[in-house]
Amino acid sequence: MAKEVGKEYTFSLWDGKVIVRPKLDMKYLYIEITSRCNLKCEMCFKQYWEDEEGDMDWELFLKILDDAEEFPNLKMIYFGGIGEPSVHPRFMDMVREVKRRGFALGMSTNGTLLTDDMLGEFAKLGVDLVYFSMDTVPTAQNAITLGHIAAAVTADKIRKLVKYREEYGTHRPSIGVEVVVTKENYRELPELARYLLDLGVDSMLVSNLLPLTEEQTKDIVYDGSVDMKPILEELYKVAHNGLYIKLPYFELKTERQCEFDENNVAVVRWDGEVAPCYRFLHSYYEYIFGRKKKVNAYSFGNVREKSLAEIWTSEKYTWFRFTMKNYMYPSCTDCPLVDACDFVKTSDVDCWGNEPSCADCLWARRIVQCPIPQHNFGKFY
User: Fold this and answer.
1) Which GO terms describe its molecular function (predicted)?
2) Residue 174 belongs to a domain with what CATH number?
3) Residues facing residue 204 across a β-bridge
4) Which one of 43, 58, 115, 352 is at 20 to 30 Å from 92 when CA atoms are compared?
């Protein structure tokens, strides 16, 4: 059971009142230990945001771990955000410290900077989950392009990590691969899934492209321009052979389900700002079905100034989570007034007064996906 904190907030809701009692019920804590990266992927937020880059300092990192111990239901600490964690100068010290304290640890990485010693230590320490980024099958024919060279390097790291975890006999870490689908690579998704299964990968997380430039809007496959049905049928066949595949929607649906909210996630940026999800971690422009929108970073507090528990149970963050969990916000994406509405120009506030606004979020539509771990049969996926 989540720990009660003794607070109680009363909110007005139309003609009634809502009483919300916050709990220390965070399940996943994402830490952006750095916002720097060694690669310059064209579809990544980092190429287009307005924010400065930086590394989390060691003292702040230790304070966050201290604060995390107040949450009795915390399932995992995850090195994520928008950056490559292994570029942090104390990356392995951070890995060791999380495991020393007994937390489950996951991370997202492009894998290119991970050495044999690092991979071996992942298996020895029992790192629980590693998601690698790979959007194509590395072959001799296409290895001359930068993307395929990176994929070949990543595949080699996965192969070695599989070997190391077999040597330790714990099947840790669970290995996943994140794939971003575009018009350029959607046809090879089944081939990539079979390739990953042969490598020894446990799970494949498929996400759609969130365009960050007008040019990228031509590359999406969820606007009706591509028939994904035969691709999905082939992916289901691979899944039956043992690869866990998590798929997004490839069309706009009425249903909304925010996995960050449903799984009680908080994200701490490299400088200590606490955001509710990846979307509000930095400031940038996104394109929602071709419509340009400014997303501004949003923080509920900084862990340099307050404890994580104080921020999590604050009135504003508590109300935000309650609102999101009950989907008490408008649906801008398919609203008939969307082309004439000023609220959709930014994420700052929506026409129901929610701040920040999730009313245009493609994550909540399950079109865009991020690695929210699932724990099944002793493994994280």
Assistant:
1) 4 iron, 4 sulfur cluster binding; catalytic activity; metal ion binding
2) 3.20.20.70
3) 177, 245
4) 43
Any domain includes 378: no
Is residue 378 left, alpha or beta, with left meaning phi > 0 and alpha meaning psi from -120 to 50?
left
Say if residue 336 is exposed, middle or buried (CB neighbours under 10 Å; 0-12, 13-18, 19+).
exposed
- 213: phi > 0 → left, psi -120 to 50 → alpha, else beta; which? beta
244, two tokens: 């866990």
Which residues, in sequence order, are CB contacts of 44 under 8 Å at separation 6+? 37, 82
261 phi and psi, to 5 degrees? -70, -45
What 8-state DSSP symbol labels residue 23? Answer: E
Angle at 162 between CA 161 and CA 166, to 5 degrees: 115
Is residue 271 assigned to a domain? yes
The per-residue pLDDT for range 6-52, each reduced to its tens digit, is: 788 888 877 888 898 999 999 999 999 999 988 887 777 777 777 88
- The number of folded domains in the chain is 1
d(CA 31, CA 52): 17
pTM attached to this predicted model: 0.94
241 assigned to some structural domain:
yes
* Cis upstream peptide for 173 (omega within 30°): yes
Tell how strand 375-376 and strand 379-380 pair up. antiparallel
Q: Is 28 exposed, middle or buried (0-12, 13-18, 19+ CB in 10 A)?
A: buried
Would you say how long the chain is, in residues?
A: 381
Question: 12: buried, middle or exposed (CB in 10 Å: 19+, 13-18, 0-12)?
Answer: exposed
The model's pLDDT over 173-206, given as tens digits with 9 standing for 90+, comes to: 999 999 999 999 999 999 999 999 999 999 999 9
Q: CA angle 8-9-14, nearest 5°?
A: 145
Is the sign of the CA dihedral 40, 46, 51, 57 positive or negative?
negative
